[in-house]
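Form 7-S
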Amino acid sequence: MAQKRYWLMKCEPGAYSIDDLERDGESSWEGVRNFQARNLLRDEVEVGDGVLFYASNAEPSGVTGVAEVARAGYPDPFAFERGHRYYDPQSDPRQPTWYAVDLRFVEKFPGIVPLATLKATPGLADMRVVQKGSRLSVQPVTAREFETVRRLGAAAGAAVAAAVGEAKAGSGPKTRAKAKPGAGAGAKAKAVASKAGAKAGAKAGAKSRAGAKAKTTAGAAARAKARPGTRPGAKAKATRREKGR
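Output:
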């Protein structure tokens, strides 16, 4: 029995996504028109092999889930179908040029594992997908790389769950307004600046009030001296209003 191998297969979400494969359960992986990728599908990909489902040309591009090979390489039927976008008039059914495989859905990651994360993760530096200029739609990966990416997918799900939990905890029945995305850091910075400004303002205000009190006392004394019996003016009451957000 052949040893299980692992692959990364790319597809644009607009053509076929991990959600589509989850819905269908099983689907053909056709339309490969690169000879190197064709050779892998025809000669090396076997039933039971693990597949990292990669969304290419996406925002962001990355691994979205896991599939397994349900059927090994066979002639791509669409290469012989006139009018189909994958039709190739030079492909002879007796000596087919292009091959396809069938994939079976295994799991969808709760969160995508983006290319940037793959590049930054130790142990994945040799993956072809992280290499500059690597555009092959079918790429071999090692068992260790496969399991590392799978763990990253689970971790992405945990991060999503934690974010959802924090959002639920932060929203109560008395909440009147929702914070705009990214406003948390700005609000914190504004709060710090506001606190510093309040301290500076209070200090300046204290000096100002002390000066005003001294002037008022001196003025009252002068008026009392000039006009005996005249009561000093009452002190002005100060009010302060704070602006909150």
